[in-house]
Specification:
This is Beta-glucosidase. The chain has 131 residues and is mostly helical. 52% of the residues lie in helices and 3% in strands. It has helices at 2-11, 31-36, 59-77, 93-125, and strands at residues 19-20, 41-42. A two-stranded parallel sheet has the order 1-2. The protein starts with a helix and ends in a 6-residue tail after the last helix.
Length: 131
């Protein structure tokens, strides 16, 4: 608790959620201890006995899970995900530019193909001499 709760949250004023980058289930990592000590979310590669919060009935276990949920929800709600500017569903500028470039390239390719086919048909009919 001194690191995640006292130093990180109390001294430094951190209000987000604490996420482990790896929860190696080697027996020395315990999700019950992690959630009580301020870890809100644990990335787990596979299912084992130690990566489940087992104590879901006691007052301290429920309080720790409730605090972890609060930290996660607080972070999401106060993130860019809920920014009104993000609610626009239109295309971004770079997407519009990419579409315009694609259309121009397609038009150039079609024009070149038309010129090539026209020359081929003229040559086939014998109207153009081949040097």
């Amino acid at each position: 608790t001194p690191l995640c709760n006292t130093v990180l949250r109390d001294e430094w004023g951190f209000q987000g959620f604490v996420l482990t980058d790896y929860f190696g289930v080697y027996g020395y990592m315990n999700s019950d201890q992690a959630i009580r000590n301020g870890t809100d979310c644990m990335l787990v590669a596979y299912d084992t006995e130690t990566n489940h919060v087992k104590d879901q009935e006691s007052a301290t276990g429920v309080q720790a899970m409730r605090q972890a949920c609060k930290n996660i929800l607080y972070t999401v709600v106060n993130s860019r995900a809920y920014d009104p500017a993000n609610l626009e569903t239109g295309l971004m500028g770079w997407q519009i530019a990419a579409i315009v470039i694609d259309v121009i390239c397609a038009a150039v390719i079609i024009a070149l193909e038309a010129v090539t086919v026209k020359k081929f048909l003229k040559r086939k009919s014998g109207k153009i001499e081949v040097n």
